[in-house]
Amino acid sequence: MKCAKIERFNPSILVSWRTQIDTNAPTRIDSPPLPPAYLKSNSKFPIADTHLFSHACQFVRTGRPLSLAVAMCLFAVFGCSLFPTTEKQTLNTVGRPVLPPIQAAADTIQLEVFLLERPAEDHLLNSAIWKEVDQLGSLPTETQEILSNNGFRVGNVSSNPPPAVQKLLGMVSEIPVDSAESTKPLLGFSRFVPPGVETEIPTGIVHDQSEFQIREKNQVKKVVYDQANCVLRMKANRLQDGWVRVDFQPEIHHGEKRMRRVAADIDFSLRMSQQVDVRIAQRFSLTMNVGERALITCTPDSEETLGDKFFCHDDDGMKKQRVLIVRVVDSGQQSAAFAR
What we know:
By secondary structure, the chain is an alpha+beta fold. It has helices at residues 11-24, 36-42, 50-62, 66-78, 123-128, 141-149, 163-169, 179-182, 306-311, 336-339, and strands spanning 109-119, 152-157, 187-193, 198-216, 219-240, 243-263, 268-278, 284-289, 293-298, 312-315, 318-330. The chain has ten helices and eleven strands. α1 (11-24) packs across α3. It starts with 10 loop residues before the first helix and ends with a helix.
């Protein structure tokens, strides 16, 4: 929007007008001049002074350009608003146009993902919360046994968490002795996941050299990896209004990063990545309602297991343990294709 440029008021214009008025009007009555102190205290315009005010009074008394004086007053009050524009744009603080935010699809599922780290010997993490968290009902018995043998611990928490979980999440205060030194705050992010689309959730723990055991069908297999990065591949699907099934697939990304052929939607593509060990036997799924949370960590005393490598690491001589928390925020709307 361009506004009209206002030139600085030139007092000489009024002087020339006064000269014209004096010559054209034979009879003229001058009003007594006002005191300068009165003009300074009652003037609403900072550029007004006694000289200009006296000429302006004589100019207005003639009554010739009264419409011009009214227009100048309106322009001083309303400014550029007298000329409205038809275009509307959203501007930021520096005056640049801002694009509207991208809206997620209607059938997108919204999840909150958190990682919490505490000392591995913490009583709240190892014992207290698992007395109040549902472990048996969230997974089939066979899946629970496979996960437990490999050091994983999975639970389902309702939308109204029990007191121990509230302490874990920081909803209520607790005063542990070593809270300032050994407990890290809750970190996380919100993610919009299209139904059936996979997303990676790294636990943030990388082992230069990892050696552990895989237990499957009463068999124990020893595995050694270099530069092992532990990742949980997650996929969510809407079951019905308010209910979501979330699938978790443990993976170990190891070795040097280089260009590799990876599977895409239609064909294979090249991508800088590590080798991937997909642990299909340790795959599990949770059915959750909106507001419920999934707690995933490792079992206590789970040395040399897959779960221990996923969620435990050494921090300056102290063993730390992490907990992955996934909360369903929105199950999304029913897609048009599914509705048909």
